TrEMBL record:
InterPro entries: NAD(P)-bd_dom_sf, Sc_DH/Rdtase_CS, SDR_fam. This is SDR family oxidoreductase. The keyword Oxidoreductase applies. GO terms for molecular function: oxidoreductase activity. It comes from the Bacteria.
């Protein structure tokens, strides 16, 4: 039986991935900040504590795995954040990178030696289409997803000779209730407040109509089972057409389309 680690396995995409892998016959180690508080555990999932913002928690989790051979690592755990770049607290950005990027890289480093020795393994990072199509007031979040994708895309060349595949799944808008949990940084007297409110309202609306976590999980399963992974698996938000437009249209044209779609002015008058 193959073993997979799924971080953030208690809700949303992570929960759907864990269910999908269990149904496929995997042994799943699912992580949560507090595994004892899981309300509706998935039968067959081995829940363990992991706080990716805490280096000691990461070390304890890795030590707890011991010599268990890990066939698949799904780096899914993460948080969302939004706000004008001028007003994002540097401490909040640092924490977001620790959670969305550095913790995932540390877990990847932990499982690689055994994968390399066995000559096989698969690592899948859950990114976001915002890494490829950044949006105003999502700079910190988009940067974390671009970073994790950059690590994976470059590492593919390093790991392929050892039989290890690493890739990124980039979902578009997803209806998982993430909008309500997104941390917002924009003061009540911010000069950006009007545009920020417009953009986030439209973003929330698109996410409410987005694809399901189960749809993303099916794409992740494809990445797990493909004979050779693609560098990126994009799903949702009309991904094929959007990525085609990215290849064919100048970047400035895409920026204008994006600004118009989210109600942003091309230039704000200075009082």
């Amino acid at each position: 039986m193959n073993t997979a680690i799924v971080t953030g396995a208690t809700s949303g995409i992570g929960e759907a991935i864990a269910e999908t892998l269990i149904a496929r016959g995997f042994r799943v180690i699912g992580t949560s900040r507090n595994s004892s508080a899981v309300v509706d555990p998935i039968p067959g999932v081995d829940y363990r504590d992991l706080d990716l913002t805490d280096p000691a928690s990461i070390r304890a989790f890795v030590n707890g795995i011991g010599d268990t051979p890990i066939d698949v690592l799904i780096n899914n755990a993460g948080e969302s954040q939004c706000g004008p770049i001028e007003e994002l607290p540097i401490e909040a950005i640092t924490r977001l990178f620790q959670l969305n990027v550095f913790g995932a890289i540390e877990l990847t480093q932990a499982v690689l030696p055994a994968m390399r020795e066995r000559g096989r393994g698969r690592i899948i990072n859950i990114g976001s289409m915002l890494a490829s199509f950044p949006l105003a007031y999502r700079s910190s979040y988009a940067a974390t997803k671009a970073a994790i994708k950059g690590f994976a895309t470059a590492a593919r060349f390093e790991l392929e000779p050892y039989g290890i595949d690493i890739t990124t799944v980039e979902p578009g808008s997803i209806a998982t209730g993430l909008s309500a949990r997104r941390t917002k940084y924009c003061g009540p007297h911010s000069p950006y407040l009007r545009d920020f409110t417009t953009v986030i309202a439209r973003l929330d609306g698109k996410e409410a109509q987005g694809i399901s976590a189960e749809t993303v999980a099916k794409t992740v399963l494809r990445a797990v089972e493909d004979k050779k992974t693609l560098p990126i698996y994009a799903v949702g938000s009309n991904a094929p057409a959007v990525f085609l437009a990215q290849r064919l249209l100048p970047r400035t044209v895409l920026e204008k389309f994006t600004a118009r779609a989210y109600g942003l002015p091309s230039k704000r008058a200075v009082n």
